[in-house]
Design goal:
heterodimer; A: 267 residues; mainly alpha; 73% helix; 0% strand; B: 234 residues; 5-stranded mixed sheet; 3-stranded antiparallel sheet; 8 helices; 8 strands; 41% helix
C-alpha cells in the first residue's frame, strides 16, 4: 500500500516537474521572440554601462589623465570593471515587466516567480555576452589586461551579484505594488548607490571611518572581488568574502520568502 | 465540484479596498453550464480571476477539479508586436499542446488569412477579441471559464458560438453573462455575486430575476462590459 502511494507521489511529482519545465521553456522562447520583434529597447538598456564607461574615459582623456588609473593601466578598464558589475545588479533587479506586477497579465499556469527567474536568467546571459564583447574590445584595442588573469574571482563576483540582484529585484517588485512612489524612488536610489560602491575610486584609500561605513555595502565587496580577476596585484584590505557570501545567501532567502508571503496580496 | 471553504477575496482599487467574497462556503458543480451574474464588473472579473487561479484568495481556500481554463476572451500578456501565430504558439507551448496542430486549427477556424501573421496591434480590436475566445476554446479543459459571451463579426461570431456549444457538451462552463438572452438558451444554472456573497441558483431565470430585484439594468451591465473590454481583453 505504502509503495503504491510512493509511486503515485513520484508520478505526480514527475508530471509537475515536466509541466514546470514546459512553462519555463515557453517563457524563455517568448522573451526571445519579443526581443526579435522589438530589439531597440533591450539593446539600449544593455548599453547603458557602455555609454557610461565611454563617457568617463572621455572625461579622463579631456582632463589629461588618460594614463592615470587607481590600479595602473587603462582607466577604461578600471571603470569597466566597476560599472559592469554595478549595472549587472541594476539590470537584473530593475522593473520586471507587466506579467510580474499584475496577475491578470499572466496565464494561471505561470507563476510570478517563474517570470522573475526567466527575467534573471535572460539578463544574466545578456551580461555574459556583453562582458565577453566589452572586455574583448578593451583587450584588443586598449590593454591586454582586458583578459582576466584569474577567472575564478570574476565568476564568483558575477554569481554574488546575481544573488544580490534576485533579492533586490523581488523587493523592488513587491514594493512597487505596495507604494506607487517606489517606481520613481528605486531607480534614483540604485544610481545613488553607484557612488558608494567604489566604482571610480578605490575604497581602501578613504578615511577609516568612511571605509568602515561603506564596507557594509555588499556591492562594494562584489566589485572588489570582480576586479581582482583583472588586477592580480590588487590585494584589498576591505574584501570580506564571507560577508559577501552571507549577504548573497540572505538576499536569495529573503527574496523568496518575501515573494511567498506577498502572493495573496497580489492585484 | 469547486468547493469554497470560508473564502474571502478583497481587491484594492486605487486607495480603496473592495470585498468581493466574504467568508463564502459553497460547492459549485463543474459538469454544467453556469451563467455568472454580478452587480459590478469589478466583482465579476475578480471572481473569474480567482476561479481560474490567476489570483489567490485573501483568506480561506478552494478546491478545483482537473484542468481549469485561463479566462477565455483574453490572451494574458499577449504581445502586440507579435503576430497571432507567435502568440498562439506561446499558448500552445504553455499548455503542452502540439504547436503546429493548434496553430492550424485556430488559423482554419478564424479564417484570418494574411492577418494571422500581422502584428496584433494592426488587427481590428473586435477581431482580436473573437480570436482570443477561439484560442481558449481550442485547448482541452475540464472547466471553461469565459469572460464574455461568444461573439464576433459575421461568420467568425457563428464559429465562435459553435465552438462554445461543442465545448459546453464536453466539459463544464462558467460564463460571465450581462444579458439573459444567450445564457437562457445555453446555461443550466446561475451564480450571483453581490455584496460579498455568492449564491447558486438552479436556473438562469432565478439568478436574473434576483439581479433585477437588486435594481441592476441590463444596459448598465453591457455599457460597463464594453468600457472594461476596451482595455482588458489583451
Amino acid at each position: 500500500m505504502s509503495i503504491m502511494f510512493l509511486n503515485q507521489q513520484a508520478a505526480e511529482f514527475g508530471t509537475a516537474l515536466r509541466r514546470y519545465g514546459r512553462v519555463m521553456l515557453a517563457l524563455f522562447r517568448r522573451e526571445e521572440e519579443q526581443r526579435r520583434a522589438a530589439p531597440g529597447e533591450a539593446l539600449m538598456n544593455l548599453l547603458e554601462p557602455v555609454f557610461l564607461i565611454g563617457f568617463m574615459s572621455l572625461a579622463w582623456w579631456f582632463l589629461d589623465r588618460r594614463n592615470v588609473s587607481p590600479l595602473g593601466g587603462s582607466p577604461a578598464l578600471f571603470f569597466a570593471t566597476g560599472f559592469y558589475a554595478k549595472f549587472l545588479l541594476i539590470y537584473v533587479s530593475r522593473r520586471m515587466g507587466r506579467a510580474v506586477t499584475t496577475s491578470a497579465r499572466r496565464f494561471p499556469i505561470e507563476r510570478r516567480l517563474d517570470h522573475v527567474l526567466v527575467h534573471m536568467a535572460i539578463r544574466a546571459v545578456d551580461y555574459m555576452i556583453l562582458g565577453v564583447l566589452g572586455f574583448g574590445v578593451i583587450y584588443v584595442f586598449l590593454t591586454p589586461q582586458g583578459l582576466p588573469s584569474n577567472f575564478l574571482p570574476v565568476v564568483q563576483g558575477f554569481l554574488a551579484i546575481l544573488a544580490l540582484g534576485l533579492g533586490w529585484g523581488i523587493l523592488n517588485m513587491v514594493m512597487s505594488q505596495l507604494w506607487w512612489m517606489w517606481d520613481y524612488f528605486f531607480p534614483a536610489f540604485n544610481r545613488v548607490l553607484i557612488i558608494f560602491s567604489g566604482i571610480f575610486y578605490l575604497p581602501e584609500f578613504l578615511a577609516p571611518a568612511t571605509r568602515e561605513v561603506l564596507s557594509y555595502n555588499p556591492m562594494l565587496h562584489a566589485i572588489i572581488l570582480f576586479r581582482q580577476g583583472f588586477y592580480p596585484q590588487y590585494s584589498s584590505i576591505l574584501l570580506d568574502t564571507t560577508y559577501l557570501t552571507y549577504c548573497a545567501l540572505f538576499s536569495i532567502v529573503a527574496g523568496l520568502v518575501l515573494e511567498r508571503v506577498t502572493r495573496r496580496m497580489e492585484r | 465540484m469547486i468547493v469554497f471553504d470560508r473564502l474571502t477575496k478583497v481587491v484594492t482599487i486605487g486607495n480603496h479596498k473592495r470585498t468581493i467574497l466574504s467568508s463564502v462556503s459553497l460547492s459549485i458543480p463543474t459538469d454544467q453550464t453556469i451563467a455568472l451574474f454580478a452587480t459590478s464588473e469589478v466583482d465579476r472579473k475578480a471572481f473569474i480571476y480567482l476561479l481560474t487561479g490567476t489570483t489567490l484568495p485573501t483568506s480561506g481556500s478552494y478546491r478545483k477539479p482537473g484542468r481549469v481554463s485561463f479566462p477565455i476572451g483574453m490572451i494574458p500578456n499577449a504581445s502586440k508586436e507579435l503576430s497571432f501565430r507567435a502568440n498562439v504558439s506561446h499558448v500552445a507551448r504553455l499548455y503542452g499542446m502540439d504547436v503546429k496542430k493548434t496553430i492550424a486549427f485556430v488559423e482554419q477556424v478564424t479564417g484570418m488569412g494574411e492577418q494571422f501573421d500581422k502584428p496584433m496591434a494592426l488587427v481590428p480590436r473586435d477581431l482580436v477579441r473573437s480570436v482570443a475566445q477561439i484560442v481558449g476554446f481550442s485547448l482541452p479543459f475540464d472547466l471553461y471559464v469565459t469572460m464574455v459571451e461568444p461573439r464576433g463579426p459575421g461568420a467568425l461570431g457563428e464559429r465562435c458560438r459553435a465552438l462554445f456549444e461543442l465545448r459546453a457538451q464536453q466539459a463544464g462552463v462558467i460564463i460571465a453573462a450581462r444579458r439573459p438572452r444567450f445564457v437562457q438558451q445555453h446555461a443550466d444554472m446561475s451564480l450571483l455575486i453581490h455584496d460579498g456573497r455568492l449564491r447558486l441558483f438552479d436556473s438562469v431565470e432565478e439568478g436574473w430575476d434576483t439581479l433585477q430585484q437588486l435594481g441592476v439594468k441590463e444596459v448598465e451591465l453591457e455599457d460597463a462590459a464594453e468600457e472594461d473590454g476596451r482595455q482588458d481583453f489583451l
